[in-house]
């Protein structure tokens, strides 16, 4: 059995597509934190937590994907996608900490 580049590319594309379908929510601008009320800040914390969970689930699925040994570069693609998801999780966690700090500063019941 001989594998060609045209046979391998669709598999790589499918792997990237499946791994790249994490949350598409827009980033929260820290300048907007000052204009949000307590309920909106609470919702933003929840939305960010949801995005973190979705991305972590996606990263786990990618990390547990079995890549055939004949698929050249498949493990590398898997690692790149997992690292991208890890970076996204770290960014979301920073956003969440910013929102929590703003909420703690303005909402006495949040502490």
How would you explain this protein's 3D organization?
The chain is an all-alpha fold and 111 residues long. Helix 1 packs parallel to helix 4 and helix 3 runs antiparallel to helix 4. The longest helix is centred in the C-terminal third of the chain and has 33 residues. About 6% of the residues have low confidence.
Summarize the structure.
The protein is 70% helix and 0% strand.
Give the topology.
Layout: H1 5-19, H2 30-33, H3 38-63, H4 74-106
Helix pairs in contact: 1-4, 3-4
Count of helix runs = 4
Radius of gyration: 19 Å
- Mean pLDDT across every amino acid position: 80
Task: Work out the helicity level.
Answer: over 70%
Strand proportion, as a percent range, falls in: under 5%
- Biggest sheet statistics: none
Quaternary state of the chains: single chain
End-to-end Cα distance: 64 Å
- Helix/strand/pairing class, anyone? mainly alpha
Shape: rod-shaped
Unreliable segments of 5+ consecutive residues = 21-27
Order of helices and strands: HHHH
Features:
rod-shaped, mainly alpha
């Amino acid at each position: 059995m001989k594998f060609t580049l045209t046979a391998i590319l669709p598999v790589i594309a499918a792997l990237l597509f499946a791994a790249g379908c994490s949350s598409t929510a827009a980033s929260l601008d820290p300048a907007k934190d000052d204009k949000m009320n307590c309920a909106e800040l609470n919702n933003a914390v929840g939305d960010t937590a949801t995005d973190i969970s979705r991305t972590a689930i996606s990263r786990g699925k990618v990390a547990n994907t079995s890549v055939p040994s004949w698929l050249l570069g498949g493990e590398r693609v898997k690692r790149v996608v997992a690292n991208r998801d890890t970076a996204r999780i770290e960014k979301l966690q920073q956003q969440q900490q910013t929102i929590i700090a703003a909420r703690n500063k303005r909402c006495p019941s949040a502490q």
